[in-house]
Amino acid sequence: MSGLLHSLIYSLLILIILLPSQLANAANNTQNFHYFCNFNNRGNYTVKSTYHKNLKTLFSNLTSNTKINNYGFYNFSNNQNTSRDRVNAIGLCRGDVRPNECLSCLESSSKNLTQLCPYQKEAIGWYGDEKCMLRYSDHSIFSSVMETRPVYYANNMGGSTDLNEFNSAVRNLLYNLTSKASSGDSRLKYAAGSASGPNDQTIYGLVQCTPDLFESQCSDCLVQSIARIAIDCCKDKKGGRVVRPSCSMRFETNFLFYESTAPSPPPPSTTNKTSSQGKSNTTTVIAIAVPVVAVMVLIIICIYLRVRKPRKKFKTQEDNEDDEIEICESLRFNFDTIRDATNDFVESNKLGQGGFGIVYKGRLSTGQEIAVKRLSKNSGQRDLEFKNEVLLVAKLQHRSLVRLLGFCIEGRERLLVYEFVPNKSLDYFIFDQAKRAHLNWEIRYKIIAGTARGILYLHEDSRLRIIHRDLKASNILLDEEMNPKIADFGIARLFGVGQTQENTNRIVGTYGYMAPEYAMHGLFSVKSDVFSFGVLILEIISGYKNSCIQCGESMEYLLSFVWRNWREESPTNVIDPTLNNDSVNEIIRCIHIGLLCVQENAASRPNMASVVLMLNSHSLTLSRPSEPAFYVDSGAGGLQDNMMQSCEYSLIQESINEASITEPYPR
């Protein structure tokens, strides 16, 4: 046995000596390679397994000229024995790349992916300034499956002196290219072109989709990407790109980055996402060398331990919901710590109260201010909702989402600890005639736009796809600068990859903000949140609650009131009189966007990427809204009657919900 051990140690020393020079060559191939491994948690495969063999066979077929068309699109499945071991792959080369160069690019990508994502069942990579994209997975990625995640952004610093004109020229160019690319056939959905910018600049743009998408899917994917320019990608920059599995978009100023008679080399880009890989030779060498050496050392140690002592049995992970909370164990607070921070939950520290409990202000021993949601012991929020909120919010990071600092479970106590947001919630201001006078249009627009970006992050750009299901004024908190932060994820739902809608028998949330398909049939999707956001826009503009408006002696539901004035071409009647009429055109445009969001047919509502785009681009023409869902008639004693009763009740009582509390059942 000692001879074997000596042999292994000798082999390891040889490997360490030779590894740097070998890995340096590998680093050169991965330096311009952006990739993601196992981004949908598909799991791993083992060496010489059926999946491993299928993957190797698939990549060997990839390099055959007979397996790829002249348009640079490749999709292929390899399956042996069972569907569980099926490998699906997509290869796509940029529309200007020649076939031989395309094959070479895909071959390099296949080597990089298997090297950088070893034994992982799903991976995607873009090589050579996105000249080609290669992706493989054990689940279906064909036949009109639009996927917008994972995504990476990059930009080139610097911009134009006339930023408004420059940004407008970029958007118009990319919209025109989107129209051309999406109308392509099943062989190629690609467009490239240029436009004139300010100061005699030339702006070059390129967009492309996987050609298996429908025209509407390609257009939606690219519109979402263009929307990122104004949010967190490359606003005011001279170049930028947004790259997704189903589509990519790029623009540059004063140099041609796609194929021409005299192609220019691309300038360096600064990548804005930490998940993009392959930034330097040193990083790549370390990323590969450390695991290899560690594995070799681990093998030696395992052999040694096998000889010296009996083999230990390892516990397998159980599918127990209670184990999930251990993921966030580092966020657990001691109950005494929270009790001290809130001065034993003294009444003077109370911020608000709702259906699930009371929210208190507190101060930790470090001086940090916190907001503590103490669930009522008889609250309608069950342990399921509590775990849901902890596990979801702990994984979310966005400036328009309230930040979860931790939680506490002790006996029957259930506490959630959030960052303290000093200006309470939106309903505290907007539904109070005196307080809403302090909200000028600039502040209200900032709240609308910030909330839209937060919802877009939940729907499209976070690691998870989340439907909030309870967007309302009391769940929009305001920080010291009146920036919005979406709160209360107790009834939020996580969607799987490719999932577009879900049905539930347990209707939770708040009437007036609920989309009709959810309130009546329990069917919810991203379009349910869009509906709630549309109601929120109209509340912010009008200052009225969604339940009712008193017009003389009659009462009218908010959406009915807005729609009637829109049809009668008197939208200014909807605007809160305390607002400055200098911004009337922008306010009316936001009313228009709100009406598009609350259309009765869910399919007619825009997605949040389009909403963000509408809010940021005043030159974008808006479609004509159809009749909104005023109410859903379910017969006598149905939702319509409930809303009218709510309308009468709200005339005599102001909202007391000043904190992030969700009511467990509809009002």
TrEMBL record:
<protein>
    <submittedName>
        <fullName>Uncharacterized protein</fullName>
    </submittedName>
</protein>
